[in-house]
């Protein structure tokens, strides 16, 4: 089950509803890829809106279109090229930015008619390209900027990016080459952005970066908080923003460093959601070494047990790669056995594919496509069985849910604290939904469970 298309970050279009004033230049935006790219798109549109540009929800109403691309996988690059082609056909005036913009010649080889190409988080260059294509014409008496800026997500949740780049050298990943080394935003700047979002009505902050648990380790020691890691101090302060009201703070992309343990008491105390999104990638030590990932799967199991001991309600989410070069059947079976022990709550899986520029391309022992597919099928069957059993155990429980959508039939699509937008399951309320509103947090009793989703009824 996936969320409605208008909530999917990879299909985002700006959805401002104000009327276009006479003579106002208007820009469209297509945002592809991960939530980190979505935040970049929101920042670009916020800057443009502050300069007096209107934001068009479609191609025909735009004087030019920005396509924010994804370049993480070759399949994502193909999708980005398709999106650029669609924007050229429908509008004709296209500016390209984002991760794929790090290789402008490749883009221009496919689409020579584009107006400009910029790389990831190059906001000033994007603005310069827009100014050249569509000169600004602000009216300071009419153009008003929303306090929280332009958002491409629903009003009740927002992604909060705390750093750029990454210091790891995983052989299958080219993010450091595209986005550079870790660069953490100042604590106060992140907190102020979060405060503005909460003031504007946001009920859920989704903390994102390429390596969230490394936040602040690039600062001089004198600038770091005393006695704890910067991410712990930030998580505590974000959680305190919700004092006296419902505010969910959810952590994504948490690398499993030992100091992650510091975050768990904050979850047990209710300051942040008891949810960790940790990309383990595999379980066999040899596979992990070929990936250039930490090769201590047994230590990971110990940490998982410790986390659950400190916070029994914690939800653990992870992603894995099957069919990595050199992966044997025994290595894959180790992963399946590890899954039986770890009993993760939410799991995603990708079949390995080469990415131009990645060191893993040159590794020996590439796995045939049919073997990758077979292993993916077996892995997902295992993950589905675990998910189904865990969700069945929730029947009869009472829990808070946040409402993402209410359709024309009155069915409310919600999420529990264990569910992040787009990547996890949903809880559906299909009766007595009168008076409910999108963004509202309500109490429900779970009365039915499926493989990935729950159903419930509202309680008093």
Automatic annotation (TrEMBL):
Domain MTTase N-terminal: 25-135
CDD domains: Radical_SAM
Keywords: 4Fe-4S, Cytoplasm, Iron, Iron-sulfur, Metal-binding, Ribonucleoprotein, Ribosomal protein, S-adenosyl-L-methionine, Transferase
Organism: Aquicoccus porphyridii
Name this protein carries in UniProt: Ribosomal protein uS12 methylthiotransferase RimO
Keyword Acyltransferase attributed: no
Enzyme class: transferase
Binding site for [4Fe-4S] cluster 2: 166, 170, 173
Cofactor(s) of this protein: [4Fe-4S] cluster
Gene3D superfamilies to which the protein is assigned, alphabetical: Methylthiotransferase, N-terminal domain (3.40.50.12160), Nucleic acid-binding proteins (2.40.50.140), tm_1862 like domain (3.80.30.20)
Co-factor remark: Binds 2 [4Fe-4S] clusters. One cluster is coordinated with 3 cysteines and an exchangeable S-adenosyl-L-methionine.
Location of the Radical SAM core domain: 152-389
Family annotation (SMART domains): Elp3 (SM00729)
Any one Pfam family match given in the protein's UniProt record, by short name: TRAM_2
GO biological process assignments: tRNA modification
Reactions listed under catalytic activity: L-aspartate(89)-[ribosomal protein uS12]-hydrogen + (sulfur carrier)-SH + AH2 + 2 S-adenosyl-L-methionine = 3-methylsulfanyl-L-aspartate(89)-[ribosomal protein uS12]-hydrogen + (sulfur carrier)-H + 5'-deoxyadenosine + L-methionine + A + S-adenosyl-L-homocysteine + 2 H(+)
Major localisation: cytoplasm
Family: Belongs to the methylthiotransferase family. RimO subfamily.
InterPro entries tied to this protein: Elp3/MiaA/NifB-like_rSAM, Methylthiotransferase, Methylthiotransferase_N, Methylthiotransferase_N_sf, NA-bd_OB-fold, Ribosomal_uS12_MeSTrfase_RimO, rSAM, rSAM_horseshoe
Compartmental location: Cytoplasm
Residues annotated for [4Fe-4S] cluster 1 binding in this entry: 34, 70, 99
Any one GO CC term of the record: cytosol
EC assignment: 2.8.4.4
Domain TRAM: 392-460
Function description: Catalyzes the methylthiolation of an aspartic acid residue of ribosomal protein uS12.
GO molecular function: 4 iron, 4 sulfur cluster binding; aspartic acid methylthiotransferase activity; metal ion binding; protein methylthiotransferase activity
